[in-house]
UniProtKB/TrEMBL annotation:
Keywords: Signal
Organism from which the protein derives: Candidatus Desulfobia pelagia
Signal peptide: 1-21
InterPro entries from the UniProt entry: DUF6488
Pfam assignment, any one: DUF6488
Protein name, per record: Uncharacterized protein
Domain of life: Bacteria
Length: 108
C-alpha cells in the first residue's frame, strides 16, 4: 500500500509541473487602470523627449484605458492644440502588464 501511495505522489508531482509548462503564458501581473494611465503618460513623455511628438503632448491627460480584442491596453490622448485633425488623437498600446507595444494616430 505504501508503494502505491508513493507511486501516486510521484506521478502527481510529475504531472502537476508539466501541466503549467509551455510557451505563450504571460505570468506577469496585470496592472490597474490607474497604473496603465501612469505608464502610458510616461511613454508619451519619452516619445516627446526623442523629438517624435511636439512638447504640447506632455500636458495631455490620457483617457480611460480600454482592453482590445488582442488583450492589450489601448490608451487615447487627445490634443486639441494639434493642427492636423488626423493627428489630434494618439493611441498608445500596452501589454496587460504595462509594457509598451506601439503608438499611432489610427488606433489600429
Amino acid at each position: 500500500m505504501q508503494k502505491i501511495a508513493f507511486c501516486l505522489m510521484i506521478l502527481f508531482a510529475l504531472t502537476a509541473t508539466t501541466v503549467h509548462a509551455g510557451a505563450g503564458h504571460d505570468h506577469a501581473v496585470e496592472l490597474t487602470q490607474t497604473q496603465v494611465l501612469e505608464k502610458a503618460s510616461g511613454f508619451v513623455a519619452s516619445i516627446v523627449e526623442k523629438g517624435k511628438l511636439d512638447d504640447s503632448w506632455t500636458e495631455i491627460k490620457p483617457q480611460d484605458p480600454k482592453e482590445n480584442s488582442r488583450h492589450e491596453w489601448v490608451v487615447a490622448f487627445f490634443n486639441p492644440a494639434e493642427k492636423d485633425n488626423d493627428k489630434q488623437t494618439l493611441y498608445m498600446f500596452l501589454t496587460m502588464s504595462g509594457e509598451y507595444i506601439a503608438a499611432n494616430f489610427t488606433g489600429k
